[in-house]
């Protein structure tokens, strides 16, 4: 009886079946969720192989897209258990099951597994099939890798190393197709390089929800195309350049700007909205060349929106704030960090309770907002952030354009309704109650504290990245860093705490805000505090209830949930 | 790229026919070819506007129909002549003189005999193009003039067909077994 119960329990849990891959037995789930519908569908051979680290090459298959099965690169051999006349499995002398090998190969991406199935990925036949598929693909494909923008991250190149021939046997004229086809405002197409895998078509139809691409002139002259006169311009088009396995679809922004092998890749998070898509920053010599999405199934899958992807150019702007400044005789003058921080700390320390106002952007990191809180916590200061609400979409874009509103709430900086207390700050400046205003990363003149009102203050301390009407009026101007220039964490709209790493150096004297905030807090409290970012995060996690139980190390690459 | 058709408008009778055809299929999309044929039969070609109209009718994106229109050689994206001569060039016809026949027809009509593309006479009367197998290999070479089918087509026989296109004011040729 117990056996039956156990069996039933096993069945109600994830049902697994055993398959043989290259002679080894593996357990794999019988079904897996469909990448688009989420419905449980039969696990395919390629999924079974990949989940156990067994390589099966492919072009058209993509784990996050519906299967098309057109490239044939994943052909494998397989067999099923041999049955005797009594329909019972037959066994070899060593006790292993006898396998009846299929005379025909199958594509691993579209063939479901069955119990006891044997998959052969490394037989001479399997390798030869890959060589043949590759040879066919290369018949009409240009062999000009040195001038192709995809070089270095091209599946054709990569598999040519594994399965390619040294010489082409093709002596006829290659088919020529359109080049530099303007598919949309951000995407350029080279039809000669296209291997017709249809990943882009499936992505834009099934993920982006814009059925905009298709194959025209099917036959020897097949081309990928948009509908004539209807540009491919949804907010997710650049993902097609990512998933294009070859150099057919390229980003107009990135193409021919930099050879990819020179790019340093840094794990980071997009700051354009509250979603916090995980990204990889590609940089070289302290210049950012591109963002690409980084897989995180809890947040953005493999995708990101075009707006967020291209929203990096401000980081390299020429007019970045790069000097620490102090107003002397009415004019800003250059000073250094030790002088400025000493004086700012003294001014805060000597301010009477209730005389300090703080506007700290919800674009600052959790750690920075935590330090701002600590800096003024015994001063009965009013603090708030600036709200940035906009439009959400059906896929990734969040209505909140601040990347860290939840962090601003968790650390007690933002008002319950973000920005509601800015008016109070303005009133109290007007009434002469607030004499010191600390502004981090916002132009308050655009958000309810007019420029004239700033003149009423005794001390205006401003930290920012780019110049604006508030920075112009600062008594102390502290140049800060973009997220790409520092480490830290944001708490996204769903409460996921995600860390990002430093890709490039900030310009001039600019320093990460958490560094100088740490110094200010230290000067004020005479407490050593946490002098490095991981320690600071862990300290914050102990102090701030929403972050209890989290640690920098355990955030890993994809983050962890805060308890908001 | 499909040509534009200014003032494109589907007459209500045609629209009713198309609506009826769509009901024959479990999914609207399945009616795509029939709808496109109905539009081409009426307008002579499938303009940008016609494709977009059909897409809306079938609740599809225009690209879905554009894929079909560019695949099937019998769909035309630009206006064609009143009469379309389709000369078969698949194997049996090719070895039995399809190219000779095409050459002759083109020369007679003042078209480029070496072109493999669809060509229309300047007066817009006759379009000449190659077709793939018309399914009568035993009587090669064969050709079609609109819906009429011609077998064992000699140059003289082709001349007769062209002659008839010239004289016949009606756009519909009768479906003849032979001339």
Give a concise summary:
By secondary structure, chain A is of the alpha+beta class. Chain A contains 16 helices and 26 strands. Chain A has three domains: about 10-120, Beta-grasp domain (Ubiquitin-like (UB roll), Roll), CATH 3.10.20; about 145-150 and about 170-315, Alpha-Beta Plaits; about 325-560, 3-Layer(aba) Sandwich (Rossmann fold), CATH 3.40.50.
Question: Could you explain the architecture of this structure?
Answer:
- The complex is a heterodimer of chains A (564) and B (179).
- With 564 residues, chain A is an alpha+beta fold.
- Chain A has 3 domains: 11-122, Beta-grasp domain (Ubiquitin-like (UB roll)), CATH 3.10.20; 146-151 and 168-316, Alpha-Beta Plaits, CATH 3.30.70.20; 325-561, Rossmann fold.
- Chain A is 25% helix and 20% strand.
- With 179 residues, chain B is α+β, with helices and mostly antiparallel strands.
- Chain B has 7 helices and 5 strands, in the order ααααβααββββα.
- Chain B has helices at 12-22, 32-43, 48-57, 62-71, 91-95, 98-109, 155-167; strands at residues 83-88, 119-120, 126-131, 143-145, 148-150.
- Chain B has 2 domains: 12-71, Arc Repressor Mutant, subunit A, CATH 1.10.10; 83-167, Glutaredoxin, CATH 3.40.30.10.
- Mean pLDDT of chain B is 92; it is low at 169-179.
- Chains A and B meet through strand 11 of A and helix 4 of B.
Please supply descriptive tags for the structure shown above.
heterodimer; A: Ubiquitin-like (UB roll); Alpha-Beta Plaits; Rossmann fold; 25% helix; B: 179 residues; alpha+beta; Arc Repressor Mutant, subunit A; 2 domains; 5-stranded mixed sheet; 11% strand; elongated
